[in-house]
């Protein structure tokens, strides 16, 4: 029984000794090697507008360049919308130009002529009225004739006043409010045309950057909604290794630190990289990552960026990273 009681303190002391030795090894500046996996971004390409697919120009495994056309929708409906918007804009522009220019000289001249004619008719009506009034006073004319002459004179005066007002308006041009409203209509039509042209341009699907087509999800003839994935592209860059470093070694790593990345396919020719990101949050080691530490130990995620990569790096490939301390 006494022997058993003595064993437990010895085991505890041995464990503490091992822990202290490990910490001293971490802080002694030995080679810092971590493990992770290659991480390559993928992008799902889809149209911003709906429609029927006319062409899919790339297949799985094909390389794509930045801005290269990879698929196209049937653009006939969108071309019609552009034509309609362009015609509406032109009509409103013509209307605005007419309002800004005012009435034509010929129209104003015609209005003046109408005023002069009304003046002449009024003068004649006044003479007739004067004669009828004089004859009525001498009991030569009937009362009805006098009343008719008076009505004709009043009508002539009213017509002259109306034509004068019309001439004044034509000479002054259109009201500023009318011109402002017409200008606003033109701006709205311009915005509608721009929207229609953007929708037409969106019938062409282009690659955002260089990469390789991983998945061809849809075929010509399919009717798609906006945002539906047509192609999935694995981007050539950026490429990095997602790795994890134990908490005791965190102080030995800093952004910009140089690193060598080894893969099983080319163990003698490492890729050059550098630490681009250090997570500020601790976490437990993911089960997919192989390290020499206990999996329950706390680690911090790193991103080792590889500026110059090639097709030898594939998504999810295991990698060993040797951090170059002091660089």
Task: Give structural notes.
The protein is of the alpha+beta class and 327 residues long. The protein has three domains: 28-41 and 234-323, Efflux pump adaptor protein, beta barrel domain (Elongation Factor Tu (Ef-tu), domain 3); 45-75 and 203-232, Beta Barrel (OB fold (Dihydrolipoamide Acetyltransferase, E2P)), CATH 2.40.50.100; 81-198, Helix Hairpins (Orthogonal Bundle). The protein has five helices and twelve strands. A hairpin with a 2-residue loop joins strand 9 and strand 10. Helix 2 packs antiparallel against helix 5 (176-201) and helix 3 runs antiparallel to helix 4 (143-172).
Keywords:
alpha+beta, Elongation Factor Tu (Ef-tu), domain 3, 3 domains, 4-stranded antiparallel β-sheet, rod-shaped, disordered N terminus
Give the topology.
Layout: H1 2-27, E1 32-46, E2 51-56, E3 63-64, E4 69-73, H2 76-101, H3 105-137, H4 143-172, H5 176-201, E5 204-206, E6 211-216, E7 223-224, E8 229-246, E9 258-263, E10 266-284, E11 298-305, E12 318-323
Antiparallel strand pairs: 1-8, 1-12, 2-4, 2-7, 3-6, 4-5, 6-8, 8-11, 9-10, 9-12, 10-11
């Amino acid at each position: 029984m006494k022997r058993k009681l003595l064993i437990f303190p010895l085991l505890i002391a041995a464990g503490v000794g091992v822990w202290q030795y490990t910490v001293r090894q971490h802080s002694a500046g030995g080679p810092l090697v971590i493990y992770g996996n290659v991480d390559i971004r993928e992008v799902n390409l889809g149209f911003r507008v709906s429609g029927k697919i006319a062409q899919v120009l790339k297949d799985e495994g094909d390389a794509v360049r930045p801005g290269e056309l990879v698929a196209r929708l049937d653009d006939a409906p969108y071309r019609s919308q552009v034509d309609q918007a362009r015609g509406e804009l032109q009509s409103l522009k013509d209307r605005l130009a007419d309002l800004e220019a005012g009435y034509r000289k010929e129209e104003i001249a015609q209005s003046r002529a109408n005023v002069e004619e009304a003046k002449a008719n009024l003068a004649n009506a006044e003479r007739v009225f004067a004669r009828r009034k004089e004859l009525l006073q001498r009991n030569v004319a009937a009362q009805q004739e006098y009343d008719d002459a008076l009505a004709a004179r009043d009508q002539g005066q009213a017509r002259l006043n109306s034509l004068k007002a019309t001439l004044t308006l034509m000479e002054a041009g259109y009201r500023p409010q009318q011109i402002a409203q017409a200008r606003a209509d033109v701006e709205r039509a311009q915005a509608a045309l721009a929207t229609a042209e953007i929708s037409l341009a969106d019938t062409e699907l282009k690659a955002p950057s260089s990469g390789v087509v991983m998945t061809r999800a849809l075929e010509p003839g399919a009717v798609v909604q906006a945002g539906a994935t047509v192609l999935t592209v694995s981007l050539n860059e950026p490429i990095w290794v997602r790795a994890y470093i134990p908490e005791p070694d965190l102080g030995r790593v800093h952004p910009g630190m140089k690193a060598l990345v080894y893969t099983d396919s080319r163990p003698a020719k490492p890729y050059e990289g550098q630490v681009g990101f250090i997570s500020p949050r601790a976490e437990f080691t993911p089960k997919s990552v192989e390290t020499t530490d206990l999996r329950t130990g706390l680690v911090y995620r790193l991103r080792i960026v590889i500026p110059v990569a090639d097709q030898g790096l594939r998504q999810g490939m295991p990698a060993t990273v040797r951090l170059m301390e002091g660089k």
